[in-house]
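ok trying this again, last paste got cut off
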Amino acid sequence: MNRLFASLPTTVFETMSRLAREHEAVNLGQGFPDDPGPRDVREKAAEAVLNGWNQYPPMMGLPELRRAVADHYALWQGLDLDPEREVMVTSGATEALAGALLALIEPGDEVVLFQPLYDAYLPLVQRAGGIPRLVRLVPPAWRITEAALAEAFSPRTKLVLFNNPHNPTGRVFDRQELELLAGFCVRHDAVLVSDEVWEHVVFDGLEHTSVLALPGMRERAVKIGSAGKIFGMTGWKVGFVCAAPELMQVLSKAHQFLTFTTPPALQVAVAYGLGKERDWFLGMRAGLQRSRDRLSAGLTRIGMRVLPSSGTYFLNVDLDAQGINLKDEALCRQMVERDRVAAIPVSAFYAQDRVESVVRFCFAKTDGTLDAAIDRLARAAVQV
């Protein structure tokens, strides 16, 4: 067995989901919506299954989806992408990330990552032979600083793995932070792989800025998107990779020998969905922002200190700020076992030097689900 994967422990996500089932808890740890997703997009997939092509589609993705991706990003982010040479379809964003790491780094190359981080990042980097260099973000601001970047970058830095909007913090990094990171990449001749799956899940009038639009990054950045996150159907696993032709040539080789292709019916439906009217995307954001505000108000009402969330499905509470002495993992266990509400300790997203005072809740749920969680926490009064 491969020692890296064989030695990985059971994740806190698995543990909390199991406890939620055992205690019949309201599960605000799960990172997916209660809603099944837009009906017209699902109907388009069903129609394509029955009446369309169900054999191998092109390895790079259906031409109609690649064109739709390019058109969508031109409209929403001002990007000029060649759909034939600069856009590829993958079986989800995680496959895109794995392929990018396998394609772009060799054993001994240093990779800069930002923690708290999505749990797949570190093992994928290590399996590809990369040496992780971690930038530690801390509450309440979770800001990227020049000092932190200077400590992480070195002459051996080959690649930077970045996530914006950021899970689990809910940060949408500002232009100053993005240009600071881009400057470090240019000076160190590093490729920036940017996980932008939450690009449409932004609030308060914010607009997403892709790394491909940053100074000096068009030829040295890889943008990764996700239909599952855009349309709130996380099980669909349809990802997009956008990069300059020189990078795409090697990215496509890695994809070819990982999954080769992605179900054509889903690709047809996603191509249709990306062309939906602007109001649909704005309405989706508004609905999630309303849910964010509903949960935030409820948690605040019962005495929790809620940190700002500008994007993703998540908001966090700061235990230190409200005088709770328990560590986040212990409090999460107490909430699921005693109060029957499941959440996720943010310390689980750190590889080292953990912040152990922040708890993440998912708000991409129905009003009834959110209200039930607040009612249970209110009754328990979260006495610790």
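PB: full thing came through this time. The chain has 14 helices and twelve strands.
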